[in-house]
Amino acid sequence: MLQIYRIRLEIEQLPVRMLDIITTNSGVVLSIRTQPSSSKNRIIGEYGGRLKLAVTAAPEKGKANKAVIELLADTLRIHASSIYIISGESSRDKKVLIEGLNLEDLKSLLSQQV
Question: How many CA atoms lie within 13 A of 88 on its CB side?
Fold first, then answer.
């Protein structure tokens, strides 16, 4: 069963207000907005309910997608093999499935790491 949440994250360092997150039996689906070809890999904040990420990789041959997965894996302290881009592979707006993570864990890890 899918449950859709809009959560508020209180992160002093970033302007993150609300994120749209879907919980599934296998994990959580996070909406993200990517900014490829940036000066460094980092979480920027929130953009229209999506977590906004900047990656240094160019949007060619899947390089930016790989960088997005690596940034999320590093931030959440999980294996990159647990993260899948389920929509938006050729778009700035993506949905990623993070297997084995629940809503509370996601909130906690994002709050600690950014």
Answer: 19
